[in-house]
Design brief:
Blueprint (H helix, E strand, L loop, with lengths): L1 H26 L3 H26 L4 H29 L11 H5 L13
C-alpha cells in the first residue's frame, strides 16, 4: 500500500512539473527561454511520472527506469541541438534581454540571419 502512495505522490509531482513546463512554453518570450522551460521541467516531470508508475506497479519498474534513463539522456541533447540550430539560423533574442552571452561565444552571429563583416 505504501508503494502505491509513494507512486501516486511521484506521479503528482511529475504532473505539476509538466504543467509548469507547459506554462513556461506558453509564457516565455523567445525560443531560447522556451527551450529551457521545455527541457528542464518536462525532463523532471516525465521522469517523476514514469518512475512513479514503476513504483506504484512494481512489475513495471525495470521498464520505467529504462524509459526514464532514455529521457534523461535524449531530452537535453535534443534541446541543445534545437538551441544551436536557432543560433546558427539567426533567431533573435527577446528585445528586452539584458545579457547576451551568445555574442561572447559566437561574435559572428548578429541575430538577423546574416553574418557581420570581419
Amino acid at each position: 500500500m505504501t508503494a502505491a502512495i509513494l507512486g501516486g505522490v511521484l506521479m503528482a509531482v511529475g504532473c505539476i512539473f509538466l504543467l509548469l513546463g507547459g506554462l513556461g512554453i506558453l509564457r516565455f518570450p523567445d525560443v531560447y527561454n522556451r527551450l529551457q522551460a521545455g527541457t528542464k521541467c518536462t525532463t523532471l516531470g516525465a521522469v517523476c511520472t514514469i518512475v512513479g508508475v514503476g513504483v506504484a506497479e512494481p512489475t513495471w519498474i525495470f521498464k520505467a527506469v529504462l524509459i526514464a534513463v532514455f529521457i534523461l539522456l535524449t531530452n537535453p541533447i535534443s534541446a541543445h541541438a534545437l538551441a544551436r540550430a536557432s543560433l546558427k539560423s539567426g533567431v533573435p533574442l527577446w528585445e528586452k534581454t539584458v545579457v547576451d552571452r551568445r555574442r561572447d561565444l559566437h561574435p559572428e552571429a548578429t541575430g538577423d540571419g546574416t553574418e557581420e563583416s570581419r
